[in-house]
Amino acid sequence: MPMPVTIHDPPAPSPPPPQHRGLLSFFRPGRAAPPIEDRGVVVRLYRRWRWSVFLSILIGYAFFYTTRLSFSVTKKPVLDAGLLDAEQMGKIGFVLLLGYAAGKFVNGFWADHVNPSRFMATGLLVSAATNLVYGASTSYPLLLVLWGLNGWLQSMGAPACGVTMAAWFSDRERGTRYAAWSTSHNLGEAMTFAFTALLVSAAGWRWGFWGPGLLCTAVALVLYRTLADRPYTLGLPPIEEHQRLLARARGEAPAPRARAVDDEDAAPVSLRALQLEVLKNPYVWLLALASALMYVPRYAINHWGVVYLQIEKSYSLVEAGVVVSLFPLVGIVGTLCSGWISDRFFAARRAPLTLAYGLLFVGALAALFYGPPGHPWLVRAAMGTGGFAIGGLLVFLGGLAAMDISSRRAAGAALGLVGGMSYLGAAIQDWVSGSVIESTRRVVEGVVVYDFGLVKHLWVGAAVLSMVIALSLWRAERRGK
């Protein structure tokens, strides 16, 4: 996420002036600006834009989740209104995640070739519009189409963030920065489960889509101003060169040479060849499979956790939303710890912590789904512990480990492959979960009830298998040394 390449990538050649206006022209990378000679100006611009782009991808990607998980919060009110059944809901979730999986793969490769700032902001803007239309609709076929489209639009966010981080932050910063950015998942999920639940309870299920849609329209417009293309479009040197010059000015020793896949003495390799190497790397595929299985229980909680607590534990919508919000909120701690600990204490090796987080996640799921009834604090503790564990697993299996064993210039391709496989697993989970839950539907004294007994085995089993396959990371890291 391996052929040797030059670590200090020269600025990409300026694209020819567009002959016509259109979507492809809008997304083209910017031209290389004349290099800025004044080091003081370079330092000042780098400091300003590194803060701007990082805060933009952190906060901006968090808001992507509010327009992705809005459907999860509205499930029980929609079930009660008889607008959809559990199987239909599973299929709507399936098309969302299938569109996301396909988009992650395609847009991951495309993101290496486009202006990532425009790419990300446009994805959020059109996703917001999709939510606004969804909230005004009741036709099941139309809802399927809209939510499948939303899945594709959602996939424009993460690859753009990965390309932005690769361009503006050095390899030595990657683990810590990637982990910090990954908290955007947690922030977005927490906002959705807590505040969207309150909004739906107060104003009805439609506002579960209209509220996030209106808010994200404004956020997308801000991102057009606060995100930036690659440094060379501003006349700045590549990030590795900039960091080396800063170290020299402070009298510090130069940074250690980067890993073999980015050897600066090797002959340059085309971007297309580097992306092909990602596809040919068996360890990237194993990581992608482990991530796909990890996304089964992750999205089981994201998409079915609220309704599970309402039906199985008799929670209210607001109570269920608050409890499920612990999953992403505590996950922030797990996410931040993962990259920093692996960089600081394990020399950027991800395998040991991946196993530790995996064991913790399986234990938390077992407590959540198989723990004795009548213990609300056990439910909360299990949800929080599971969130802590999934925070680290999202960093390692969800992208960082694959980026570590791939070229920095093909970061989008590595993230796209892993992301596509991850959301394919999540999509299959939603279809199967919805079908299994609907198959247990029965009417007891005039009340419709569902049984989650069977589907819980599927969710926990996927977590165990993911942990087993992730052990391949040990060999992948040894191979890269």
Quick tags:
about 0% strand, disordered N terminus, 19 helices, single chain, about 75% helix, globular, Growth Hormone, Chain: A, mainly alpha, two-stranded antiparallel sheet, about 475 residues
Give a verbal description of the structure.
With 481 residues, the chain is mainly α. Helix 5 runs parallel beside helix 7 (140-154) and helix 9 packs antiparallel against helix 10 (207-226). The chain has 19 helices and two strands. The model is unreliable at 1-20 and 258-267 (pLDDT under 50). The chain starts with 22 loop residues before the first helix and ends with a helix. 54% of the residues are buried. The chain is globular and about 80 Å long. Strands 1-2 form a two-stranded antiparallel ribbon. It has one domain: Growth Hormone, Chain: A, CATH 1.20.1250.
By DSSP (H or I, 4+ residues per run), the number of helices equals 19
Summarize model confidence as the mean pLDDT.
82
Integer count of domains: 1
Strand order of the largest sheet: 1-2
Offer a quick outline of the entry:
By secondary structure, the protein is mostly helical. 73% of the residues lie in helices and 1% in strands.
Explain the layout of strands and helices:
Layout: H1 23-27, H2 39-66, H3 70-73, H4 75-81, H5 86-111, H6 116-135, H7 140-154, H8 157-168, H9 174-203, H10 207-226, H11 239-249, H12 271-280, H13 282-312, H14 317-345, H15 351-370, H16 376-404, H17 411-439, E1 442-444, E2 447-449, H18 453-470, H19 472-480
Antiparallel strand pairs: 1-2
